[in-house]
Records
---
Amino acid sequence: MRAAMLHDFTRGPVLEDVTVSAPRAGEVLVRIAASGVCGSDVHAVHGKANVLKNMPMVLGHEGAGVIEEVGEGITDLKRGDPVVIAMYGPCGLCGTCSSGKLHFCEGPEMRSVYGEMPDGSTRLSLNGTPAYPFVGVGSMAEYAVVRRSMIVKVKPDLPLDTLCITACALTTGLGAVFNVADVRPGATVAVIGCGGVGMSVIQGARIAGATRVIAIDRNPAKLDLAANLGATHCLTASDDGAENIAAVKQIVPRGVDYAFEVVGSKALIQQGLAMTARGGAVVMIGVVPWGEDIAVNAGLMFDRRLLGCLGGHNIPGREIPRIIDLYQSGRLKLDELVGHKYPLTDIREAFANAEKAEDIRTVVTIDPRLL
Ligand SMILES: [Zn+2]
Ligand SMILES: [Zn+2]
């Protein structure tokens, strides 16, 4: 099959012929219809993702498609079922899963973040040597083999080249609002960084009933869209952090209840803390390199919280159907987030477009017969 491969951090993605083996027990083979290009894919191309252990790698982790083949033991899915591939699939059996915290699963299933099956194997190979799917998905390819627990069956007749973005941008952004912060009606919110995830935070805050949703970004076009999606105030980001903090406090003098940092910048996390009211919280969604330390003001931390956010603490079978219901009921906008679409053969152009970061989501269309 054709797949967008990454071999190193200088040459960018290349289209190659990759061998995919049959799904084993508990696994499924998905024929991919479309894949979003997430900021993390772009970071991976530049060697800036935290999970780049195994190379070469098939890019993509926002995939939707149809079931092509099911492995032994799977009776609830059949060929042709439309599905979204979730970024991870908890084991359901380990101590943390049993305590209800499935998003912190400690089972070997979590090896999928490095592109491995629980036993360390992979179903992909390139010229006889193993290849690995990015975060266990590898959706910029004609097919993907994933475990059943990563599959969310969706209603038929929905556009798979839109639904694909629910796999990461939407689950992370909405999960940060609903699961991590638990934003309640009447809350005040600032969102620092208005890409795909930030826009999802804005929509989540609107749906949760926040009365002030302050969008902060450098790009005026993104602020226009943020207003369309539910931001009540839009601020053009300044290089001077004190100006950003003062601008937020002009709108909410005591500070916001929640600041969501969606860039992955230590300086912006510090600004978020200074924008936050006593009793409030900063949710760190943007990914700071894992080896680095973040300095925080002890006086601010005395009565505020800094919350980590692992992909929105989402449980795939709960989050993705909820997102699709909100979309179908008109309360969540998805079509507005999808920008240019490129066929898989134009993978390099797709990444160049994503790199410009003008579109909220660039989408790679892989099988037009499924769209
Ligand atoms: Zn992503
Ligand atoms: Zn588990």
Note: The chain has two domains: 2-167+334-370, 170-312.
---
Amino acid sequence: MTTRSPQPGPPDRPGPPDLVVPERFRSTGGAAHCGWAAGALARYLAPGAVAVDLRAVLPLDEPVQVRVDERRDGADGGRATAWDGDRLLMEATHWERPLETLAPVDPALARTAARAGVVPGPALHPVPVCFCCGCDRSAADGLRIHPGHVPGSARGLVATTWTPHASTGATGASTATLPVTWAAIDCVGAWAGTLSDRLLVHQRLVVEVLDLPRLGEEHVVVAAVQGTLGDRVHTVAALHDVQGRLLARAEHLWRDVLHHDDHLLRAGAGPS
Ligand SMILES: [Zn+2]
């Protein structure tokens, strides 16, 4: 597959070993958006597919410490972890197994699906201020990715179009940042997994970004359910451009915490 520059790899890597989630990239009022935060940690390992296990939510506007362990062969980037003192918050590792790739959905069909969207208004939305799927965010602030079920599809397939706002890129860049790209294919999995009917929180997020989405250009976000087992829900998501070219794919593992006591919920985690 051909890719366009800039690549989501070493040039996008952060410098100092601290990670700060600005308040804009929030999920609930005081917690970081898990997809954005996971993507920020994944920069230490990109390019390639990266799995992030989420142990606890990250704070907003406060630095957490990042440690990058070396591979056994001595190269950088075998494992990256985020810490609050001696408390492990997130762990990122390279993901070697192939990820499922959803077929692209035609942009016109995605728009039709979104118009009958599954994301409710502020009165019923579990996290109305969510950076990705919150309905209580402006287009210049949140991503407002509000998918709907694709008519006639299986596996709870949802889709919507998304045009990255200029503010989602670094200064002078023509593409959204890597953490924003991770965020864009995060919550959509929960909506495919019927977030309207249950409260899903992250266990693991695996993302491979092949190319970053271009600012001001329309893209299509899709997601579907892979399977459920007890309180666990597996979903898959993808980001395509309007020509159907795959830019990023993700697999999510969620846990339905309405029926289970969960350490993430106790820590204040939300669905994103
Ligand atoms: Zn969300």
Note: The helical segments are 34-42, 107-115, 178-184, 187-192, 263-266.
